[in-house]
Design brief:
alpha+beta; Ribosomal Protein S5, domain 2; Alpha-Beta Plaits; eight-stranded mixed sheet; four-stranded antiparallel sheet; 8 helices; 25% strand; binds (3R)-3-hydroxy-3-methyl-5-(phosphonooxy)pentanoic acid
């Protein structure tokens, strides 16, 4: 889009997906930089749609003027979070104080379903901000720079959001074997076009849809003086090296070994924080047992991962879906709240929604 900014009101929109990490970012340094590298699968169906409408203020500068709507309603808690993010970005995006901003956001997945809404929502907002920057400054970035900038801004809203700016498999955090990697922004991880990894499925088993008792900010903060801090950093960076080998070599046994080690380590760190944080539920453990039993009995390529919550992501390949779905509906659904699961899969990344220019 090459709209030139005059005095009109401009509305732009992006739809951005959530992601699920196989190697977990857990613990941060100043500037929302990660203690360790991470790697995730971008989802296809679980998305946030955000529209940003902006018009020039009569008098430039001063405080940011912003109204925020979530599913059409004013939402104080989110609104404060967004305003504080925008304030922290003024040095990078000085034009923010020259416009009246209206932000309208919607998720297409249920709240507290084990799908990271901060990842998709902060990615969608960051993409809108970079599009706005292009229009306001009339400087249009090459595509790779556009997404790098959006990833850098998204990171400042929520660390994991920097990975949602790309489709497929995405890494974040400087590691030796990924030349393009950085702590500042995420990068798409190249996958052979023949690989089954391009056809991953994620069935999210909803053990509990209760709102999380832990915000990820307090979870990251609990890592600061954690007795296993250094051990975790070494483990995660080692796991990131190993998982990239597993993906490059289509080694699914290694992929599941590392992913499950990461999910269980995340919860081991939570349990051994002080005071200990227990997010797993009895049915989470039943599901893990059943998945391992089923894998042992069938030899199918499936693995589980868990975020900072009780719900389990069952990851497998499209070509084995027919054999896996009866296991989900007959066995695993017994341990899900109201027998509920969400079917998702690896996705292609965010999408610019037709920009609407109101003169
Ligand atoms: O992006 P945050 O601050 O919500 O942290 C995300 C942390 C995990 O979801 C547990 C792991 C990850 O890498 O996504």
């Amino acid at each position: 889009m090459t709209t030139k900014m005059n005095d009109q009101t401009i509305k732009i929109g992006w739809k951005a997906p959530s992601n699920i990490a196989l190697v977990k970012y857990w613990g941060k340094r100043a500037g929302q930089l990660p203690v360790n590298g991470s790697l995730s699968i971008t989802l296809e169906k679980s998305t946030t749609t955000t529209f940003l409408t902006f018009s020039r203020k009569l008098k430039s500068g001063g405080a940011i003027e912003m109204e925020y709507f979530f599913h059409g309603n004013k939402q104080e808690k989110f609104s404060e979070k967004i305003l504080s993010l925008l304030n922290s970005l003024i040095a990078e995006l000085p034009f923010l104080t020259d416009f009246r901003l209206v932000i309208e956001s919607e998720n297409n997945f249920p709240h507290s379903a084990g799908i990271a809404s901060s990842a998709s929502s902060m990615a969608a907002l960051a993409l809108c901000l970079v599009t706005m920057e292009e229009i306001v400054t009339n400087v249009y970035l090459p595509e790779a720079d556009f997404f790098k900038r959006a990833s850098t801004l998204a990171r400042q809203g929520s660390g994991s959001a920097c990975r949602s700016v790309y489709g497929g498999i995405v890494s974040w955090g400087k590691i030796a074997s990924i030349r393009t990697s950085s702590d500042q922004y995420a990068s798409p991880f190249p996958v052979n076009s023949e690989s089954r990894i391009n056809h991953l499925r994620d069935t999210i088993l909803i053990v509990s849809s209760e709102e999380k008792s832990l915000s990820s900010s307090s979870g990251h903060a609990a890592m600061a003086d954690h007795p296993y801090w250094e051990g975790r950093r070494v483990q995660a960076n080692g796991n990131l090296e190993l998982i990239t080998d597993a993906i490059r070599n289509d080694d699914y046994q290694l992929l599941s070994k590392i992913s499950e080690n990461e999910a269980l380590s995340l919860h081991a760190l939570l349990l051994s924080s002080s005071p200990g944080i227990v997010l797993l539920k009895p049915n989470t453990l039943r599901i893990i047992e059943e998945i391992r039993r089923f894998r042992e009995a069938t030899g199918l390529d499936l693995l589980f991962t868990i975020d900072a919550g009780p719900n389990v992501h069952l990851i497998y390949f499209e070509d084995q879906r027919e054999m896996i779905m009866p296991f989900v509906s007959k066995t695993l659904s017994q341990f899900c709240e109201n027998g509920t699961w969400i079917d998702d899969k690896i996705g292609t990344g965010p999408r610019l929604l037709t920009p609407k220019v109101e003169l």
